[in-house]
Amino acid sequence: MSTSTLTQSLGAPVTRLDGHAKVTGAAQYAYEYPVEGVVYVFPAVSTIARGRVTAVDAAAVLSRPGVLAVLDHTNAPRLKPGVDADLMVLQSPEVSYRGQIVAGVVATSLEAARRAAEALPISYEQEPHDVLLRDDDTVYTPETVNGMLPATFEVGDPDTALAAADVLVDARYTTPAEHAMPMEPHATLAVWDEERLTLYDSNQGPFAYGQLIAALFGIDASAVEVVAEYVGGGFGSKVLPRPSAVLAVQAARVVQRPVKIAMTRQQMFSLVTYRTPTIQRVRLGADREGRLTVVVHDSLSQSSRLKEYTENSTADAKLLYAAPNIRTVSRLSRLDVPTPGFFRAPGRTPGTFALESAMDELAYELGIDPVELRLRNEPTVDPGTGLEFSSRNLAACLREGAARFGWQHRDRAPRSRRDGRWLVGTGMASATHPVYIRASTAVARAEADGTFVVRVGATDIGTGARTAMAQVAADALGVPLERLRLEIGRASLGMAALAGGSMGTASWSWAVDKACRALVDKLGAYAGAVPEGGLEARADTAEDLEKQEALSRHAYGAQFVQLRVDTDTGEIRVDRMLGVFTAGRILNPRTARSQLVGAMTMGLSMALLEIGEPDPLFGDVVNHDLAGYHYAANADVPAIEAHWLEERDDRLNPVGGKGIGELGIVGTAAAVTNAFHHATGVRVRDLPLRIESAR
Ligand code: MOS
C-alpha cells in the first residue's frame, strides 16, 4: 500500500487510503456488488403533478420476455404509516408530484425492465396543480424548522428600531431550486434472506438509514444490514432513503430475488431531495457609524403536499453580527412538488446569500468598506442565544482574507475598473457553519500479530473521512497507519453520526479517539503483550455529549472574489476566489483543502449557473437533465485559494475539529454577486447571475 509512513499522523497531508482502490475500480459501489440471481426494477413515474392513478395495465407488459412482476399501489408490499410520508411508495393511488413512482417493473435485465416500465399503460384522474413558489395566502409559518428549531425568533423591538434607523436597507432576494447530482446516482441492491434484509446502498449514514428502512417495513432494526462502504457523493441528497430504495426492497420481497435499482439522471430531478427555492426579505438598520441596530430576516421556502420540510435560511441573521434587535421568520408554502431536503449547507447557503448581499448594500449606503462594516459589528456573545462562543475567529478570517486578497487597494466606487472590454470588480462575504456533533460508537481492537482494527459506522462520501479517521486512530494508538485497518460503512458497526451537516468527522473522531485510548489503557494492563484472541475496547460518546456545556460552537470564514464582465456580450468570468476559514483543528490539510475548494466551486456554480426551472404547465422541472441543468465545469473555475488559520478550541471534542464539509460554500454566492455589483454597478438579487444581468 502506498500509505504514508508518518507516525505523527494527525495534521499530516496523508493521501487518501482508498485512492488506489477507487482509481483502479477495486472499490465496490452499491450497484456493483456481485450477487447471484440478481434482477432489476425500473420505476414508472407519474406524468401528472396532482391527482390519482385510475389504472395500471400490468397485463400489457407482463408477457414480455424477462418481465417478472409489475408492482403498483394495488399489490405492493404494505409499509408502516407515520415513518416518512415521502417514502410511502405505492401505498395509495394518490399522486402528489410529477415524477413520483406510480409503478415498478421487475425484469431479468435492466433493459427489459426499463422498456416495459416506459411502455406500461397508466391512466390518471388529473387535478389542477401548482408548482410555483410565491408569497400568497397559501403561505404559513410552520411550528418548527427541520423538525426541531423554532420557526420564529425575536429579541428587542425590531419594528421600533426599523423606524428609528439612520440608514436602512430593505431588499428582496430569491434563490432557485438547486438539484443534487452526485457522480454516483442513488443506487440500491436489496437482498432478502428470510426475514433479514441486506441493502447495498449509496447513502450518507448506514446506521440511521437501516433504522428508518426497518421501521418502514415493520421489522427489527437488527434484521437490517446496510452496506455503504464507498459512496460517490451525496450533497445531502443521500441522508434519507429515497423512494427508489423502498421500491427495490418491495420488489425483492415480491419476486424473492435480489433486486437492483439505480436512478437515471432525469429521475433524480424528482426522486431526490433538492434545495427549495427561496424568497427572502432582509431589513438592516444601522447608525451612521455602521453599527447595526436591527436585523430582520424573513425567508419563504416550499415543500411538498406529502411532508413538511422548511429550509432554515434565517439562522445566520441570529449569529453573524451584533444587533440589539433581531427578528427572523421562516415561512412555508406547500405545493405539488417533490419534497425538498438537505442540500449543501442547508439554509445557511441561501440565507447567507441574502444576508451578506444586504450587508454589502448597507456598506454602500453608509460609505463604509464592506470588510470594515463587518468588523464593526463583531459580537462578544452569540446574539441569538446569548451563549459564550467556544471560539470565534470571523474577524481574523476577514483581516487575513483582506490582506491575502489585496483588498486594501480597492477603489470602492462601482464600475471604476476596466480592462479593455471587461469591467472588473471585487466582492466579499462572511461565512459560518454550525458545529454539529452527534453521539457515535466505535470499537478498537488489538490483534495478537501486532496490528489493530478500528470499527466505526462512518461513511466516506468522497470527503476523505476514512483517511482522517485512520489518522485519528493511529495517533491515539501511537502506531503508524500501516499497522491499522479501518472498517466503516456498515449499519452493523453500530450507532454513528451521518456524513451530513458537516458532523461526520467531528463526531466519529471523538468515538474513535476514545475507543483507541481505552484500548491503550487495556493493553497497559497486559504490558503491551496482546493476549491470544486479541483485545478490544468500545466507546460511546453519548454520555460525553450530555455533559457538554452549552456554548455557541461554529466555524467561520471570509470569502473574496474577483470577476469580470464583458461589456459587449455580458459574459461573466470569475477570475479569482479566495477563502480564509477557521474550523478548529485541521486533521488532514490535503483532504481539508479539497473539501473547501470543492465547496467554493459549488458556490460559484450556484452563483453563475444553477437553476431548476419549474414548468407551471406540466409541473415538471423543465431542464431535468445534465444538458439543461448546468454545473460549473473546469473551464468556469478560476484560481481558487482556500486558507485556514490555526484555531485551538478545547471545548468541541477531544480531537478538536469543527467540521469543514459545508463551510466553504456559505458566503460564496454573495461574494460573487457583490463583486458583480462592484464591477457593473448593477445589484443582482435573484440567483443565478445571467448574461443579461448587467443590462
Ligand atoms: Mo449535508 S447538505 O447536511 O449532507
From TrEMBL:
The keyword Oxidoreductase applies. It comes from the Bacteria. The keyword Transmembrane helix does not apply. One of its GO terms (molecular function) is oxidoreductase activity. Keywords: Molybdenum, Oxidoreductase. InterPro entries: Ald_Oxase/Xan_DH_a/b (IPR000674), Ald_Oxase/Xan_DH_a/b_sf (IPR036856), Ald_Oxase/xanthine_DH-like (IPR016208), AldOxase/xan_DH_MoCoBD1 (IPR008274), AldOxase/xan_DH_MoCoBD2 (IPR046867), AldOxase/xan_DH_Mopterin-bd_sf (IPR037165). Residues 24-128 form the Aldehyde oxidase/xanthine dehydrogenase a/b hammerhead domain. PANTHER family: ALDEHYDE OXIDASE 1-RELATED, XANTHINE DEHYDROGENASE. This is Oxidoreductase. The lineage of its organism: Bacteria, Bacillati, Actinomycetota, Actinomycetes, Kitasatosporales.
